[in-house]
User: Which sequence fits this backbone?
């Protein structure tokens, strides 16, 4: 049987489920950080910037972000290439990433020296 405080704790922890669902994938925060300063990003740009990600994995992560309504895929103005842009929902996620970046700058590694 749960106590009242246990139920409250569970509800409080549950409030991060949506963000964790998006940011919990291995590459997703690294992919999204490129949208902080760029309005539109092409697949090859993301692949070059992230480095080490398999193209299939990148494609799958971008599809997941698109399905979640975080990014939208559009045909670039050049006409023969696609680019990805943040949706309003994606822009609302950027402060979370910026806070994660600040924390990572302050505590650069989980490994002890």
Assistant:
């Amino acid at each position: 049987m749960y106590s009242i405080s246990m139920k409250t704790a569970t509800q409080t922890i549950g409030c991060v489920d949506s963000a964790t669902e998006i940011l919990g994938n291995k590459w997703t925060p690294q992919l999204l950080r490129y949208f902080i300063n760029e309005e539109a990003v092409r697949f090859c740009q993301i692949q070059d910037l992230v480095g080490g990600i398999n193209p299939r994995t990148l494609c799958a992560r971008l599809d997941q972000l698109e399905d979640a309504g975080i990014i939208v895929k559009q045909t670039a103005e050049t006409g023969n290439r696609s680019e990805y842009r943040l949706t309003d929902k994606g822009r609302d996620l950027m402060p979370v990433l910026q806070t994660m970046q600040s924390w990572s700058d302050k505590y650069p590694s989980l490994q002890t020296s």
Q: What stands out?
A: Residues 44 and 55 are 9 Å apart (CA to CA).
